[in-house]
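Subject: Predicted fold for Stage III sporulation protein AF, 201 residues

User T.R. writes:
Posting the sequence so we have a shared reference for the thread.
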Amino acid sequence: MQLIIEWVTNIIIFILFAMIIDLLLPATNFQKYVKMVIGLILILLMLSPLLQLFSIDVDRLLATIHMEGSNQQETMKNEFEMKKKEIQASQRAYILEQMAVQMKKQVAEELMKDYGLMVQNISFQTNEKEQLKIPDDIKTIEVTLSEQNEQEIVHPVVIDASKPLNQSSHDEARKKEIASFFAAKWGVNEEKIAVQIEGRE
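User M.O. replies:
I've generated the structure tokens; pasting them so everyone works from the same file.
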């Protein structure tokens, strides 16, 4: 509403100003050129709301385009990083899975023969790096073992009361021995290997 009032006021003021100039100018050929100029200015005044409506702030437009471009670029960069991490995680999981299969095959026969145990699961804890280096980036290898499934002959158990039972120490010594066996077979530090025997935790 304020815009319309200002627009009408400007037109009225300009018409009054044009009338005063017309009265002051002498009747010569020059007067018709003055009237033409005044008429053009009046037309521009009347069209000024439309010109303002369609006028474009170039700086603001460029700033908006630049901002939208930057936001789109940032979004694309974030999406690319997420996809990259997903692919790397998939590759890492696949490599570790295949490595676990190979490691299991490598020790299966001898483990069964010497200890009567089978590998149920091998899991890894690794450093979070883009490029996984084996075995340097492996922090821990957790190996879960189970007893042989075949039924074994049960021998009578003779308990000597004079000797204290220390099953826990025996189990720990056995786990350490098995960890040493794995370390030799896999070429990794024994301290990185954690052995668990199902039913013996």
